Sequence to fold (546 residues):
Amino acid sequence: MRKIISAVVAISMTGTLLTGCSGAGKQEPTTGLANTETVDSAIENAAAVEDSSGFLYTGEAPITEEGGTIKIMAQESNYPNVDISKAPIVLKVFEEAGVEPAFQLMDYDAYPTEAAPIIGSGDTDADIIKTPDNDPNQVYIKSGLFVPLDEYFDYMPNFTAWLSQNPVEKAELTAEDGHIYYVPGINVADDYQPCLMYNQVWLDKAGKEAPATLDELVELLRYFKDNDMNDNGDASDEIPMSVMAEFLPYMFGPAFGLDLVSGFQADDAGNVTYAYADSENYKKYLEFLNGLYKEGLLEADYAGLDRDTVIDRISKDLTGVAFDFSWAMSMMYSNVLPYYDGTEATAFVGVAPLSGEQKGFYVGRNALSGMYGVSTKSPQIELAVKFLDYAMSDHCQDYYQWGFEGESYVVNSDGSREYTEQGNDNDWLQQLGINPAFVLPASQSVEATDILVADWHARINRELRQYIRDPWPEIYATSEESDTANLYMEDIQKTVDESTPDFITGKKNLDADFDAYIDKLDSLNLAEMIEVRQSQYDRYLKALEQ
Ligand SMILES: [Ca+2]
Fold:
């Protein structure tokens, strides 16, 4: 199954999971929405100038006439059969730039743990380094490992133009000291996000519409549980709902007015709260899940459910409700249904979020993904900076998203594009190096994803976009804020992670034990933590207004 996941979304899936769906502060973002002055004046004053060899780079290839080699430390592809360092799209960028490629690559999954000590100790001669995370605590920045890119903006016409057009990302990228150190990859943030899906055939058999409310959902789950939905003569083998534990906050939190995905959330007046400490609504959320659990609508081993098991069940027509990244809809779930014929009527179909006392929404994610910095140890900083600028240009993004005209895609007479037959072969497309975010600052593309999924799936994505709400923004913290978070968040998170399943399964009693849970969070200095988030959020709002 894994093979059919295009990197376009595969990255978005693993990325989101790695950085923590349960959100609440495993990472401690750091900086400076407060002050983009340095960067703003650097952008304003940037003017293409000749480099030390007398060559003028204007944003188009080549970046030099002297040749040379650029070495990048980054990740291997997460496709085991793809050598991303030899992928034609990646090689094309180097070839056009006029430099030779060199790589120091590490295993995709092991990158965060393997790369961190190497970067930290400066034990690499790479010119460009992909950080193992978004450097939320500015650890690498503060260690002086990376060049302040704004001091080289004369050599970065593409990046400076992009920053001018993206004030939120510019503010998010600006460190506490007012400099920008990284060129980011960009995630699709409002499209193809996790959503609720139903087996349409089961819905039709039950004569029901997709539930709009929690009550309607419960009614539907009971129906699926009690009836022979898969027509095998056995009314007891149906598993009404197959949702992995990490998606329960996505699926049910919003109906209770909670963004449990981010953890911290702000209301319309800008007041920050911690969703897992909402003594009224979080309690109701747990009561609801405990109710599902007791009735067998949420399975006994819900915490152990993984995606492979969900796919296996769907392939045997055993289950009716799922919640996953949108990508799964037509690419992992519908396609394994025994009767799927390519139409929505026979598929697992995404629908609007559930509402309860509060109107439902889906939680989107932050756009910044995968930071690339230029090492201060590089003997050719100018060249490295220019390469990074060229590698993030629109021209190169086109390669990353579509590959090569006539090979992986064609342009129709109306100007729209589509993948060729070969381009629709995902194995081939990955070999070509599509979306090489492992080694270059690639942006995901909604349009390119639309073409990869079923037409009905692309349409449903467009319909669901209206329900996406921004997650907690990526806001750098001051050193003091980051110290506070590092001191308190781990214990707070641990308490939440341990208590939640106990309340859902009834091991802990909501009437008897919930107040003690809230008290425990209070004793772990939650109030101080919320104050930190409040000041960060205030700065964020201020920066947005500028
Ligand atoms: Ca059955």
